Amino acid sequence: MSWKSRGTDSSKSLVSKKWALLLCIGCFWGGMLFSSRIETEPEARDIPRTMNEDGKLKIVSGGCTPKPKDGKHESTDILGEVSRTHHAIQTLDKTISNLEMELAAARAAQESILNGSPISDDIKISEPITKRKFLMVVGINTAFSSRKRRDSVRSTWMPQGDKRKKLEEEKGIIIRFVIGHSATSGGILDRAIEAEDKRHGDFLRLEHVEGYLELSAKTKTYFATAVALWDADFYVKVDDDVHVNIATLGATLMRHRSKPRVYIGCMKSGPVLAQKGVRYHEPEHWKFGEEGNRYFRHATGQLYAISKDLATYISINQHVLHKYANEDVSLGSWFIGLDAEHIDDRRLCCGTPPDCEWKAQAGNVCVASFDWSCSGICKSVERMKVVHRRCGEGENVLWSTAF
């Protein structure tokens, strides 16, 4: 091969290398441009386009409303929407609460039927029409051995016969003695109560086994049963050795009728008794801190009242509510974590004469009267009529009071 031909081949090789380099650089920049196009294409593809008058594409920002020039108008619209949403939530919450209460009442009534809980004839008759609204249900806690106490109440502040029915129909006030069953079902104690109920028709029988250490359980069962049978604003518990002025009690509760969750009574905070063998001993005293501590504020057990929402809460949660040794402490503990209003009204715990008598003469008639030393009226069978005569509001007051 000649020198000339070798020079020509060398020149061609040099040119090929230059073109290869340029081609590589071109491919690199082309790849970069293509990658950038791929990343931005999905966003661009979603943007709607239209043709303008010149035949060119014009990007349209669909779904984006122009920002109003008037900032105040926009703020007003937002506040209005927030207000409407808040109102809708409140309405929905109230509806759900009402449905829950109705469901709990229906469930409790169904359980009573399935469990075969005996109900007095007058309650069975009134059951289909108990959707009417009552002011209050007054449950008088009693025991098998308290026949004479019940008779003392019947002969004083608790209307009997047609007057009791009139009280329910005209004043919306239900009054019943509350008792469960004996450990021996159908025994002599139960038969005695059944005979007494046939004569007076003023008992509310609970699916509960009676016993002094079972008062907390009885309280739960009472409220669950009462809220299932009667739709009332308030549910009251009172002991059978306490004197009560019914009209004054009704007027007192009426002042709190518009409040949703009310717990009314004489609020106290007694000592937690750790010593065994003493009355009101608290086996779970260690839960309340060091020895010598006191209980949280709660209503004394002689008489207290709770609103329907709280009674329904007890009915729904009765299987998980903890029971302490003392019934009034147990009830107070169930409301500790709730948004419930505690109302301390000292007229619910007046003393017997002359205390309640002096207060009545001063125009401050007591709701309930008893002796603190006896946790009720001492020797109530003998003294109930005396207390009623000296501290009672008078029968005419009850029938003339509008609730």
Can you offer a commentary on this structure?
This protein is an alpha/beta fold and 403 residues long. It has a domain at 133-400: Spore Coat Polysaccharide Biosynthesis Protein SpsA, Chain A. It has helices spanning 3-45, 71-114, 121-126, 147-154, 162-171, 188-200, 215-229, 246-254, 308-317, 327-334, 355-361, 380-391, 395-400; strands at residues 49-51, 57-59, 133-141, 173-181, 203-209, 231-239, 243-244, 262-268, 298-307, 341-344, 368-369. It has a 7-stranded mixed β-sheet, with helices on both faces. Helix 6 links the parallel strand 4 and strand 5 (203-209). It starts with a helix and ends with a helix.
Largest sheet: 7 strands, mixed
Number of separate strands? 11
Q: Give me the Rg, rounded.
A: 39 Å
The CATH architecture of the domain at 133-400 is Alpha-Beta Complex
Order of helices and strands: HEEHHEHHEHEHEEHEEHHEHEHH
Write the layout of secondary structure elements.
Layout: H1 3-45, E1 49-51, E2 57-59, H2 71-114, H3 121-126, E3 133-141, H4 147-154, H5 162-171, E4 173-181, H6 188-200, E5 203-209, H7 215-229, E6 231-239, E7 243-244, H8 246-254, E8 262-268, E9 298-307, H9 308-317, H10 327-334, E10 341-344, H11 355-361, E11 368-369, H12 380-391, H13 395-400
Parallel strand pairs: 3-4, 3-6, 4-5, 8-10
Antiparallel strand pairs: 1-2, 6-9, 7-11, 8-9
Helix pairs in contact: 2-7, 2-9, 4-12, 7-9, 7-10
